[in-house]
User: Fold Carbon-nitrogen hydrolase family protein from Paenibacillus sp. SYP-B3998.
Amino acid sequence: MKMRVSAVQYHLHTIHSFEEFASQVEHYVKTAQEFEVDFVLFPELFTTQLLSIGDDTGKALPIEALPTFTDQYRALFKGLAEQTGIHLIGGTHVTSEGDKLYNTAHLFYPDGRIAEQKKLHITPTEVKEWNMGAGDSLQVFDTDKGRIAILVCYDVEFPEIVRMAKARGADVLFAPSCTDDRHGFHRVRYTCHARTIENQIYVVTTGTVGSLPTVDFMRGNFGQAAVITPNDVPFPPKGILVEGEINGDMIVTADLDLELLALVREKGSVTTWRDRRTDIYTDWS
Assistant:
């Protein structure tokens, strides 16, 4: 089984209407469609761009206002997925339940279904500044191209949760992120590489680029998309199928061969998935 994936280095800049946001999203999706992809990944928190629309005084909207765009956001991505026949991973969008906000990843199927994965591990800034709540369960998603999981940014820094996703059959992990400096970016990037080696899976990751000068905590963005592989002979020596130009406004695209994962798990130079010591530590399956 093979799948073609694209990851969007989404350029954040001030906008004045939802229509501007929709036009930018459609541009990226239509660009990916020209490459006949199966999946498109958008970054974490890219819908914070909607806060730059501002209120009647021109002041940026607060984070609590972002869930008011949820219906429009879902309708936009649902329509594009149905029109193009592409699985769209709409990065993350801030949703609300009760008095809590949640950083929620969305998977839009070409047949109109919408699935969700709430971010499970919340950063100190998300807790202190945005009163974010944490999701309480891991989802895996079946598609006609294979089983996948979506873990958001900080989530990928916790090896246990990725081990669980692999134990439940996920061969491809999509990791939308949003980091404001090199330190944060490399924390996510390096751990993505580690997760591919530990679990012999693919990781598709991307982040926001550009700036929202009026939106708190979104003024700085440092991002780069990449498709990352296990480090073994069938794959590129550095474990990178493709990567973007750092902080550029662009899309990267690559083909994933799932049969190669089965090969290296069975006959690779190392067989990390098979050789885990479940007699010493927990088998998350």
